[in-house]
Design a protein that fits this description.
The protein is of the alpha+beta class and about 140 residues long. The protein is built from three helices and five strands, in the order αααβββββ. The protein has a five-stranded mixed beta barrel.
Length: about 140
């Protein structure tokens, strides 16, 4: 009887963890959800509640501290198309000043908002090099 109840308790833990993960997308509670799935099956055995909790916590924290850093590293090193602009030449079509964003056109004709890498002004018509991409803003320096 107690095993059947614990199966539903672990299922509730899995659902709560998945919902929290979907709301936060921090890759933290998903590992607890994975452990909860394991515990659904282990709750069908005659393992005592305190051992179930210890196994749940042990597996969860092991996954959290071993797997999460690897996944986060993989996510951060994934380059997008925007990051491919780094190192490319652009044409400044609106002057960039210290306190004013400008605009630059890439080789494919797309106009991007941009700022100067330093504090120098880059006049319209100057060829620049993209040194970094910050969101949807190119950081450039004059060539």
């Amino acid at each position: 009887m107690f095993g059947n109840i614990m199966m539903w308790v672990w299922l509730a833990v899995v659902i709560v963890c998945v919902v929290v993960e979907l709301l936060t997308t921090s890759l933290t509670t998903i590992w607890f959800a994975f452990s909860g799935v394991l515990m659904i099956f282990l709750s069908k055995t005659q393992i005592a509640l305190q051992w179930q909790i210890l196994i749940f916590l042990g597996v969860s924290f092991a996954l959290l501290f071993v797997t999460r850093p690897l996944i986060m590293k993989k996510i951060k090193t994934h380059k997008t198309n925007v990051n491919a602009l780094e190192g490319q030449e652009v044409l400044v079509v609106k002057t960039i000043s210290k306190f004013q964003k400008g605009e630059a056109k890439t080789k494919n004709g797309v106009i991007w908002t941009c700022v100067s890498e330093g504090e120098e002004e880059i006049p319209e018509g100057t060829i620049g090099i993209v040194t970094k991409v910050d969101g949807n803003t190119l950081i450039i320096k004059a060539k």
